What we know:
Blueprint: H1 3-23, H2 29-54, H3 57-73, H4 77-87, H5 107-112, H6 119-155
Helix pairs in contact: 1-2, 1-6, 2-6
Amino acid sequence: MVLPLITGISAQGTYGLIRRANNEPYQLTIPLIAVIGFQLIYETIIATLALTHMIPPSALNCGLGSKWQMLWRLKDGNTIRTIQDALNCCGFNTVRDRSWPFEVPATCSKTFNRNRSCVGPWRKSEQNMAGLLLLVAVVVFIVKVRKHQNLTSTCQ
């Protein structure tokens, strides 16, 4: 997670700009606005990207299906197997749909004794990760706003 690191660095820079701006009135307002604006835009982008992976599920299914198809076309058995092992599933839409091992479609479910496809668990995993990313973006934004409020009130 790079968001907290970038926010921490830019918050320290903002702190210095606020201190200088209070010592030299109206000298550094443009750089201060630029830094805060950059932070706001960056956090908005992160939050928006997270939300696109949370809702709507049908759009996420399409993206995951395209990714799975690309892995299948490239015969990337390591990645497909990693997904299947992590989620305890076989195939994409069904246990026979583009599953690993590639030789026989029913091999995965028989070999590993799995009876569910990967689309549901993979979508849920993506939505959970997106929710955590959104939570981090919101918490960082709230912490930053509170810090900026404290900085501006103590520097005046």
